[in-house]
Please model this.
Amino acid sequence: EIMNGIAQQVALAIQNDRLRQEAIVQERINREVQLARQIQQTFLPSRLPNRKAWEMAARWQPAREVGGDFYDIFTLTKNRLGIAIADVSDKGMPAALYMTVGRTLIRAYANNAKSAANLLQRINSPLVTDTPNSMFITGIYAVLWPETGQLLYANAGHNRPYILRPNRMDIELLPKGGMAMGVLEHIQLEDSLYILEPGDCLFLYTDGVTESFSPSGEPFG
Model:
């Protein structure tokens, strides 16, 4: 009985120590994930460009602590604005790391790109070369001229955006475009030109919106 009692106490002490070690490891992982989230947020614009007569808003909410969805709105030469939204095929930490690659390439090539489609085609090449585990990126890139409302748009396999035109009582669905980036070595994408008039709204999103479910489990679509 004495031996059994000692054995139970030893077993309990070993189990408590093991649980304590697991808790320490989990706490370290949680800290690293939180740090990764903070770093990822630094790659998103802290504030959106301010242009007279234009209103801009964005919301970013990853499914996990970090994710592969990202957006960017930044100033180009000749007072233009670059608008990008993209989604990495995976989730979690791998997607978050790959997201930084896509965002960096967009910023690097934006000012020298001949068009919106040309930019997406140019960043496709390094993505194909360096793609890990068959990951790919769907994305949209557009160039906006705020003075005229001209919007040059190209789509690489991403969810089709909308232009809401309340003055015309119309909702315009933009073209789907071509292949996602990071899949094939050469992709052919097309530019489309639109005019945003006063009151119009350009709405871009990722599949986190269309694949969300109601509390009862029904897909919103």
Remarks:
- The mean pLDDT is 87.
